[in-house]
Write a structure and sequence with these properties.
about 300 residues; mainly alpha; hpI Integrase, Chain A; 2 domains; three-stranded antiparallel sheet; about 55% helix; elongated
């Protein structure tokens, strides 16, 4: 079988067996496609079935000249997943990446916004537009922050996912895993107002259940949400590198600062492992250090 065939089957495996999202599948496949391109560029007569550990090490070494340590670690992880699949499907008896060491990289803490910065952003969104676009954008920011949503979860949110009487919304997260997230009363009211007063102006027969729509009645794209956030950051003179995910980080960080349990935050964010959520402990300690440096009686 050719590389392309193995990659195609691998993508089907990730979709059907692992239940991964389309974006994650594309990311995993790209790692293998880079290796395929390297094999073809240097006309190496080897397949995914018989490629050696040495050939992969040469590929990683060649790639390391062009990419950061973090990207290199991500590449090795992607290849390891692919060859795990090859072993699982009995194409190989061993994974040639098992003994490859990933470069050591420091954990980069995500940028977060303060409560004041978030309030400033929301307050800057003028609502007096005839199409209701600004009000929709306000509801988007409120939803990202108050529920800690990923951008993919936000654009997939449905009217049928709203359980306001119970105080929850249903989220379909990574791997199509379902979770219920509590939603603040004020955010409930904003979503209800948007649905009843603004969304109704552009909803179409094919999007009756989709909450956030553009002016043509189509679901919003990930890129559109990124543009909305970037424009609001520029408007408010915020120099931090923010994205829709920044509101999710801020949501988790502010909960922790106010005494929320880490396990509870893990459940709300939909993290499979508590170690993913533990990054917010580092953020909290960072804030504690800032407070000590500012207010400690021995600070200069």
């Amino acid at each position: 079988m050719k590389w392309a065939t193995h990659i195609k089957d691998y993508k089907l495996y990730l979709k059907i067996e692992r239940g991964l999202s389309e974006n994650t599948i594309i990311s995993y496949a790209k790692d293998v496609e880079k290796l395929q391109f390297y094999i073809e560029k240097y006309q190496l007569q080897t397949s995914a079935v018989n490629i050696s550990k040495e050939a992969i090490k040469e590929f990683i070494y060649d790639s390391s000249k062009k990419i950061s340590a973090g990207s290199q670690a991500r590449l090795i992880s992607g290849l390891r997943n692919f060859f795990d699949y090859m072993v699982f499907e009995a194409y190989r008896t061993s994974n040639p990446t098992d003994l490859l060491e990933s470069p050591k990289i420091g954990r980069k803490l995500p940028d977060t916004l303060s409560v004041n910065e978030i309030d400033q952003i929301i307050a800057s969104i003028l609502e007096n537009d005839s199409l209701g676009i600004n009000f929709r954008n306000k509801v988007i920011i409120e939803s990202l922050y108050s529920c800690g949503l990923r951008v993919s979860e936000l654009i997939q949110l449905r009217v049928s996912d709203l359980f306001f009487e119970e105080g929850f919304i249903r989220i379909i997260g990574k791997g199509n895993k379902e979770r219920f997230v509590p939603i603040y009363d004020g955010t409930q009211q904003l979503i209800t107002q948007y649905i009843q007063q603004e969304r109704i102006k552009c909803v179409s027969s094919s999007t009756t259940d989709v909450i956030f729509l553009n002016r043509r009645g189509n679901p919003l794209s990930r890129n559109m949400i990124f543009l909305i956030v970037k424009k609001l950051a520029e408007l408010n003179g915020i120099k931090k590198n923010i994205s829709p995910h920044t509101f999710r980080h801020s949501f988790a960080s502010h909960l922790l600062e106010n005494g929320a349990d880490l396990r509870m935050i893990q459940e709300m964010l939909g993290h499979e492992s508590i170690t993913t959520t533990e990054i917010y402990l580092h953020l909290d300690r960072q804030k504690l250090n800032e407070v000590i440096n500012l207010y400690h009686p021995r600070s200069s």
